[in-house]
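Revision sheet: structure tokens.
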Amino acid sequence: MHVARLYRRRIIPAEHILLKDDVIVAQNDTYIVTKWLTLHPKTSFSHGCSCYFLQEGIKISKIYRSDNTLLYWYCDIVDFSYQEEQQALTVTDLLADVILYPDGNVVVTDLDELAEALERGLITKEQMTHCLRSLDHLLSMIYRDKFDRLQSRLEELGL
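Predicted:
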């Protein structure tokens, strides 16, 4: 799979946008690494880099302040859809997120939105199952001190 364009699809709020300014730094059949500036100006952070793990259904992002200091790691549970003719990958945010702060604090967010999406028929049972399994896999890695295996893709590239 060769990806030339990345799209982000959100379920809540509904959105489907081309990540036209994201720069693909590396890619193979198991991951894609990008670097980016925020789409909308933020006071807390300005830029970052992400690694999309295509088999695990996880996207991890290293979020930086404008002075290049690490704010936190943000992990999205996602689903992927590849459109071969367009060489485009649509990344659907399945709402459940995990934030890892530099002090070691771990926060799981947006599970209420995940439940709402299921109740409103915005996601399928299969997507919910995929989301929960990917979230469990990610949290298991974090709690067993193996998150560095995911971080290494970005670290190896100096991001």
